[in-house]
């Protein structure tokens, strides 16, 4: 009796056939998220269109300090959750990715985007690693349960 062994290479090849690639750029990950969820990240216009669920921008305080705002409701800002004294790239990135994955549009002021783009790209790569691993594991389980392969090595 011949044993058919399922390998990482077989799974990766089948994932590639589905358009899921192991190595992908952060820009491509962002495009993938937007395409899959019908969402959009706008960091090119000078102000939000008004239909975005999340907006990231800066404002000056009365005493001339710049604060950074990452809010889902620009008319009702939550000062404890939405206002930052510095560009918190990790938090901004996590909130942006979350909103995009929920199918929501996001607007980020170009100046702020340029300052934390590397944090966003790192977060996108982390998100994609989790996404890819889950797709890999699901496909491995599916192929083993269908009986096409006897074991995994």
Secondary structure topology:
Layout: E1 5-6, H1 8-17, H2 26-37, E2 41-42, E3 54-60, E4 66-71, H3 79-82, E5 83-84, H4 89-101, E6 106-108, H5 110-145, E7 151-152
Rg estimate, integer Å: 20 Å
What structural class do you assign from the helix and strand content? Answer: alpha/beta
Number of strands: 7
Beta-strand content estimate: 15-25%
Helix percentage range? 40-55%
The oligomeric status of these chains comes to: single chain
What gross morphology would you assign?
Answer: elongated
Uncertain stretches of 5 or more adjacent residues: none
In short:
With 153 residues, the chain is of the alpha/beta class. The protein has five helices and seven strands.
List keywords for this structure.
two-stranded parallel sheet; 5-stranded mixed β-sheet; 16% strand; alpha/beta; 153 residues
Would you give an account of this structure?
- Helices cover 49% and strands 16% of the residues.
- With 153 residues, it is of the alpha/beta class.
- The chain has one domain (23-133).
- The strands form 2 sheets. It has a 5-stranded mixed β-sheet with strand order 2-6-3-4-5.
- It is elongated, with a radius of gyration of 20 Å.
């Amino acid at each position: 009796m011949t044993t058919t062994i399922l390998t990482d290479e077989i799974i990766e090849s089948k994932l590639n056939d589905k358009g899921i690639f192991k190595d992908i750029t952060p820009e491509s990950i962002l495009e993938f998220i937007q395409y899959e969820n019908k969402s959009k990240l706008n960091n090119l216009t000078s102000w939000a269109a008004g239909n975005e669920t999340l907006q990231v921008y800066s404002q000056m305080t009365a005493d001339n300090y710049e604060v950074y705002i990452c809010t889902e409701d620009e008319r009702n800002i939550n000062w404890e959750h939405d206002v930052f004294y510095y560009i918190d790239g990790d938090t901004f990135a996590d909130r942006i990715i979350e909103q995009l994955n929920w199918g929501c549009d996001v607007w980020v002021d170009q100046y702020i985007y340029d300052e934390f783009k590397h944090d966003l790209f790192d977060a996108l790569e982390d998100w994609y690693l989790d996404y890819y691993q889950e797709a890999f594991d699901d496909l491995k389980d599916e192929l083993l349960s269908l009986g096409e392969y006897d074991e995994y090595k």
